[in-house]
Every structure is written in C-alpha cells, then in structure tokens.
Amino acid sequence: MDLIQSILMGIVQGLSEFLPISSSAHLVFTSNFYKVFKGIEIVRESNQEIFLDIMLHLGTLIAVLIYFRKEIAEIIKALYFGLKNKDYSSRDFKLGVYIVLGTFITVLIAYPLNEVAGGLVFRPAVVGLLLIGTGVLLLFSEFWAKRHADKKDISLKNSILIAIAQGLAALPGFSRSGLTIATGLLSGMERTTAARYSFLLSIPIIMGASMVYPLVKIDYHEIVNYNWTAIIAGTVVSGIVGYVCIKYFLKFVSKFSLGIFGYYCLIVGLGTAIFFMGR
Question: How many angstroms separate the CA atoms of 152 and 162, rounded?
C-alpha cells in the first residue's frame, strides 16, 4: 500500500460513506481496480489494507460526530434526564431510544453476514450486482415517495425497518445510506428527515467498526511496521471529504430527487460486474 492508494481510498470513503452509493462497494472497486492497474493479484489483501479500511471509517466517524455535535448532545442530554426524571415524552429521548434499538437490530442482522461480506471483498463482480440492487431500490423509493412520503417525525416502526435495512447493508454493494434512506421513504418519511436519521443511526455502527473491532482483531505487533504516513493521510482526507459531503448532500436531498444516485448505482454496478466477471 502506498500514499497515492491511501489518499485515493480516503477520497472514495469520504464521498461514498454518506452518499447512497455504497462505501464498501467503492472501496472494493477502488482497491481492485488499483491492483489490476499495478498488476497485483486480486485475492491478495494484507492486514495493512484491512487496517486502512478501519481508519478510513474512523475519519468519516469524526466527520459525522463534528457535523451533528449539537444533535448528539441534545439526544444524550434527553436520554439522561428522561431516565432520571422518568419522563420519556420528549422527541430527542425517543430518537435516542430508536438509535439504541436500531443499533441492536443492526448488529443482530449484520453479524451473521460478516463472513459472507468478507468473502465478497474478493468478488467485485458480485458486489457490482448488489450495487445494481441498491440503484433499483433508490429509484423505486423515489417513485413511491412522490405519493406517500410526508412524515416529519420518526416512529418506532420506521426505526425498526430502517435498522433492518442497515443490517443488510453489511454486504458490500448494498449502500448503508442508500438502503436506510430508501426504507425511510418507503415507510412514509420525508426525504430530509430520513437522511438525517440515517446519518445519526450510522454513528454507533461506524464507531463499532472503527474502534471496537480493532481491539479484538488487530495484531498490535504488526501495525508498527505499517505505512503510517499513508494511513494518516488517508484518514484525514476521508474525514475532510466526509464532512463536506454531509453538508452538501443534506442540502441536495432537501431539494432534489435521489434518482441520480440510483442511476449511478445501476451504471457503475453493471460496468464493474462486466469488467470483473471471470477475474
């Protein structure tokens, strides 16, 4: 792994983590296209590359924490005082409960898929097909939302359905933000509400992937020999790009359809599936 690869992966992670186009798919595509370009066998994936992927997610985690710092503080405060005073009626308290419940459901669904997801890293053609599925769902959800999406608040039913979608997004190609926002639209939520909730719900999961996972999986005797210049550069880039992406995506989604991302997923997914078929 070199500096160029790391920065390129950081840009891709920062953009695709919050856009509904599947960050995991784009990291798989970028890594494998880079290996093809450099003449490296696709089945090779070093522990350093796995660690870089974790650090890139840490960068986007920091971005979402900074952007939503006020909302996060209000939710934590509402949970604390709600439990202390036994008053569970506030909107922020309910939102905090939905995020906790949604995280639990996500883990229940995503954990059994972990081994399958790991194997798909070496099968970019299959990931491309799953990305096509994301595109189809985005297009259908936009068609549905024009007639049904009007809810400004999140319900228990909404939160459960969105959590299930987030769990399925453990598979590369199924966009986490794409599936969660589309599910929100299909359950009647207004587009901006669905997008903001999707980002807030992502925080515990990204935190688990970028902070808890390394504690049990990473060989700390090995990481001292990693290319830390490249890793830090990629992490910083993913954070900066991720923050800018959140800011402008929320403005975009408040005014325009997500259909463009649906078509993008169809085109990129089909092209990637064809390119890597048989490799």
Answer: 15
